Amino acid sequence: MRPTSSRLFLPAALMLAATPAAAQTAQTRDDALAQDGAEYARAYGVTQPEAVRRLAAQQDSVPVIDAIADRYRDRLAGISVQHRPDYRFIVYLTGDQPVPTRWITAGTTRVQVQFRTGAKVSRDRVVWALSHHQAAIRAALGSYPAMGIDPRTGELVVIAGNAAVEKAGEPRCSTHG
Question: How far apart are CA 88 and CA 26, in angstroms?
Answer without folding.
Answer: 30
